[in-house]
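Hi R.,

Quick one: here's the ABC transporter permease sequence you asked about.
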Amino acid sequence: MSQLAAIVRSVAASELAWRFRTSPAVIIATIIFGLLVLCAVFANLIAPHDPFDPATLDIMDARLPPVWSEGGSARYLLGTDEQGRDILSAIFYGMRISLLVGVAAVLFSVTLGVLLGLLAGYFGGWVDAVIMRLGDVQLSFPTIMIAFFIDGVAKIVMPAALREDMRFYVVILAIGVADWVQFARTVRATTMIERRKDYVAAARISKVSSFRIVLSHILPNTIGPVLVLATLGLGVAILTEAILSFLGLGMPPSQPSLGTLIRAGNDLLLSGEWWISLFPGAALVLLVLSVNIVGDWLRDVLNPRLR
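And here's the predicted structure, written out as tokens:
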């Protein structure tokens, strides 16, 4: 317990903690993000209803406005959609899907980008040329086009019964493949600097394998920039998933994300049911904005040129 208390005191007295305490916008963004994550993780406990259990749905409750509007019901604080699903509960469950896709896509792109960046930066030569040219080619294709391509291949390869269940992984793959280049370029630049330092030369003289040099010595020095990029990339991944779902390339109605909910509500905007699309959209904005604020702050704090 004493060691844990010492660690806590050390962290609280660090420059990072001090800069966090003196940044009200970052504190508010962190609190909002934390609350949204808690609502998503514990949606089955916090949500007033289970919006995806057909046994609990009543078509007579469809398209009810928010509780403060005329015709609203106290059972549904933010109203219901065309199937009678509670909007608030659907947001909690949809936010869980959006976060899962975003985190998984970022982890995939980080793993792929860091691996290729280490290889390109450490070995150089034709390895570096091939990887960087692949990155250039990939950057010439937008994420939506990559998603169209992967979705088309998945429809050809997979049986029809599995297509809807595999949409989750298809979206992750599409976003991850589209975003690995920024991580690879960052890690490559850091690796090219680190490989010329004396400690790497000493490790080579000591007959340490290249694999161990890269993982034990060079990789830890790339964590800071990668962490910042991953934090900023999480907001981009969540927003990209919402765009893909809005276009019909993302999550299916049986596993709706915030983008799927916005798309469903968009079809009813002209009918006057504005709440079906507005509230999921507001949740998406809060989620992405809070992540971006924290990511921008981390970038400034961890950048030695700005200290």
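DSSP finds 14 helices and no strands in the chain.

Cheers,
M.
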